[in-house]
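Figure 3 (text version): structure tokens given as input.
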């Protein structure tokens, strides 16, 4: 089959990781003959009906289509999957006011996409040349839960112990993917904490430190695994191209484990900050602020960053995981160290930080 008939489907391209995956594919399909021969030149990007298309990536020389959809309309979804060979499902909800918000945003769309895909494949059988090759689900370390000790980072086959609604919903979505893996070739990716250009969450920390405030939410001495976003998308593509990864789950992370205080101090060094006001907010004050955040949410119906779910995560000592399985199965090793990744990120966000 000619490459022009090969199609990829992406969800979540308006988001942080999704926009980088799309950008990576555009670059590699254009420059790498091997990638182009596998993925072809047609990409379909699904957007939620309430989303607005972001035009932050040039794609005039490739056939990229955007389609607004309702994930609950399974029949319409089914028709979209004709000739699609790869699906990268990245869309999801990271913030919500109730458990049901996360179920609606993370579990239900995953179930409906897979149900519609299975219907399409059963209704319209394919030959070997254009067979469906992979459904890649982007989950989270939150689905696995924190580790108990520094010496034992979470492995893929460890017991999953999510501690809040987001992690629970991502784990439930993983279970859905596993259920459909009987009929569809799937791979689950669990990234550790992801940082890089276009991330809004870490941007708040960069701005805070630039303003000489070094604030901690009882996480100063905590440890975390991290990965630079461009390394992550390379790992996602590598896993999707390797048949050994079918039916498997992988942590993708840098092998360097970072302590929160070192992470924020490194940002300060890059900014050449000689003086910082460092505050580690006491636990009892955090709990009080959470109560205020809950009242704010109930009164104004807006999501507050100071909520019970987020604070639960900051109280955990070891948000760390092992990347050994990915290294063994498909040779993935994140190549960007923290200092270099932060320098690139801060340079990208220069104007926003200095506003």
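Below: residues designed for each position.
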């Amino acid at each position: 089959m000619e490459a022009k008939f090969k199609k990829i489907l992406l969800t979540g391209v308006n988001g942080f990781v999704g926009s980088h995956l799309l950008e990576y594919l555009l670059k590699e399909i254009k420059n790498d003959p091997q990638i182009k021969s596998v993925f072809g030149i047609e990409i379909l990007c699904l957007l939620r009906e309430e989303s607005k298309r972001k035009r932050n990536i040039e794609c005039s020389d490739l056939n990229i289509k955007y389609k607004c959809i309702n994930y609950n309309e399974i029949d319409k979804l089914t028709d979209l999957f004709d000739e699609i060979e790869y699906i990268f499902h990245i869309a999801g909800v990271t913030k919500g006011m109730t458990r049901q918000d996360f179920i609606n945003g993370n579990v239900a769309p995953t179930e409906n996409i897979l149900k519609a895909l299975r219907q399409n494949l059963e209704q319209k059988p394919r030959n070997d040349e254009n067979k469906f090759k992979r459904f890649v689900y982007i989950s989270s370390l939150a689905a696995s839960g924190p580790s108990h000790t520094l010496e034992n980072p979470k492995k893929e086959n460890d017991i999953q112990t999510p501690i809040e609604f987001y992690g629970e919903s991502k784990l439930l979505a993983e279970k859905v993917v596993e259920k459909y893996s009987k009929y569809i070739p799937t791979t689950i990716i669990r990234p550790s904490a992801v940082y890089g250009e276009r991330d809004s969450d870490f941007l708040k920390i960069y701005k805070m430190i630039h303003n000489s405030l070094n604030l901690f939410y009882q996480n100063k001495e905590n440890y975390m695994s991290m990965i630079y976003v461009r390394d992550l998308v390379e790992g996602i593509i590598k896993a999707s191209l390797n048949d050994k990864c079918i039916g498997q789950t992988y942590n993708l992370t840098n092998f360097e484990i970072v302590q929160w205080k070192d992470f924020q101090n490194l940002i300060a060094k890059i900014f050449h900050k000689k003086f910082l006001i460092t505050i580690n907010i006491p636990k009892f004050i955090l709990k009080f602020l959470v109560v205020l955040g809950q009242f704010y949410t109930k009164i104004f119906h807006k999501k507050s960053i100071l909520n019970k779910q987020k604070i639960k995560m900051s109280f955990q000592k070891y948000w760390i995981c092992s990347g050994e399985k990915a290294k063994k199965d498909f040779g993935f090793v994140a190549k960007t160290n923290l200092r270099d990744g932060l320098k690139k990120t801060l340079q990208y966000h220069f104007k926003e930080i200095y506003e």
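The domain at 3-199+224-257+319-334 is CATH 3.40.50.720 (Rossmann fold).
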